[in-house]
Write a structure and sequence with these properties.
The structure is a single chain. It contains 2 helices and no strands. It is an all-alpha fold. The protein has one domain (6-63). α1 (6-24) packs across α2 (29-39).
Length: 65
């Protein structure tokens, strides 16, 4: 895959890793990434592990539907 530069390739690899991890954990990657991106700015660093695909719980029940 052509990414244009090393830096953009590394970013692409990080995003694709999150997408595939979400899929492996039975999550909809789009729903997961949207929720994580919405919550990330206010998530305390001490609780950042809660946003990893294997620990993630949606912010509200309506998100998964």
């Amino acid at each position: 895959m052509f990414a244009g530069s090393l830096r953009s390739g590394q970013r692409n690899a990080a995003i694709m890793s999150l997408v595939q991890s979400a899929r492996l954990n039975g999550l909809n990657p789009l729903v997961y990434l949207k929720d994580v991106m919405d919550r990330l700015p206010t998530q305390p660093y001490s609780r950042i592990n809660e946003l990893l695909p294997h620990n993630w719980k949606p912010a509200s029940a309506s998100i998964e539907s």
